[in-house]
Amino acid sequence: MQDLLLSLPIGVVLITLVFITLRRGWKLPTVTIAVGLVVGVMGLLGIIGALAWPGLDVFAMLLAVYLLTIYINALLWQTSATASETTPRRHWAPLLLISFFGFVIAINLLFLVLADVGTDSIIGRWLLPSKHPGEVVSSIFPGTVAHDYREKEDQFNQYQQLRDQQRVVGWKLHYGWKVSPLENTLARFELNLRDKNAQPVRADKIQGVFYFPGDARLDTSFTMQAVADGNYQAELRLPHAGRWDLVLLIQRGTDQHEVRASTDVGKLQAP
To answer: Are strands 220-223 and 255-265 parallel, antiparallel or unpaired?
Structure first.
């Protein structure tokens, strides 16, 4: 999305150059050029949307900026073509409207870029400098979706089947940290797995992800290793203090068990 938004100035310049070339070089009527550019821009955006849909907000922004650029060029060329020494000066109302909508589009464009890259980007630090030197504030959308099955109806049914299967299998789990974890410090995460008869379960694979709601770039994936019958562990280093969400998937043959939980990571105290 960021690449599309940053390409807006290039598109505006190209539209203006095409207008100048067709108007001065080929002497085409202003209305003909404007209609042709509108059809071309909408067709191009339609192809881009079909190949890689950027989202309705980005698509609407691109369409509004390009159509406004075409309108401004048409207005300027049409006025200059009919102007003469006896023609009154251009009225201020269209220019005021153009300036207003240009300002609105620019502000919304800024909001979209900040929503995509976050306030810890170069743009964010320039617009919103921190009061405390060395402090970094991140506002980027973390991308954490704790219940992905809600995104699509068919995934919800799959999730319900998994929950029913878990109840039938009846595995009993005890999991947690060996010691309370601290940021950027190696800590051991342990799991004890038993069946409904209290017998140890030998899992084929145990994989998990710790999601950090503040920044998806810090998400930490891991695989647990068996250390004894029914006992598994993983050495982890979570890079930031605060709350983390856990999604753990245990597999044995066709049996699966999913765990969703949360944990708190302490802040490392300076010596």
So the answer is: unpaired
More confident of the two residues 92 and 42? 42
Asked if 59 contacts 5 with a C-beta cutoff of 8 angstroms, the reply is: no
Q: Are strands 187-194 and 231-236 parallel, antiparallel or unpaired?
A: antiparallel
Q: What is the amino acid identity at position 216?
A: A
pLDDT at position 184, please?
A: 92
Identify whether the C-beta of residue 61 lies closer than 8 Å to the C-beta of residue 5: yes
Residue 259: the pLDDT is 87
For 30-50, what is each residue's pLDDT tens digit?
A: 889 999 999 999 999 889 888
193 forms beta bridges with 173
State the DSSP code for 266.
Answer: B
The answer to whether residue 207 scores a pLDDT higher than 90 is yes
* Partners of residue 211 on adjacent β-strands: 245
- CA–CA gap between residue 150 and residue 78 (Å, rounded): 53
Which domains can be identified in the chain, with CATH numbers?
A: 2-127 (no CATH), 148-265 (2.60.40.1940)
Strand partners, 80: none
Closest CA to 143 of 217, 208, 209, 244: 217
pLDDT above 90 for 257: no
pLDDT recorded at residue 149: 45
What CA–CA distance (Å, rounded) separates 171 from 47? 51
* Higher-scoring residue by pLDDT: 227, 56: 227
Query: Based on C-alpha coordinates, what's the Rg of the chain?
Result: 29
Quote the tokens at residue 68: 């406004």
Q: Residue 131 in contact with residue 138, Cβ under 8 Å?
A: no
DSSP string, 89-155: PPPHHHHHHHHHHHHHHHHHHHHHHHHHH-TTSHHHHHHS--SSTT-----S-----S-GGGGSHHH
- CA-based nearest residue to 185, from 244, 240, 237, 220: 237
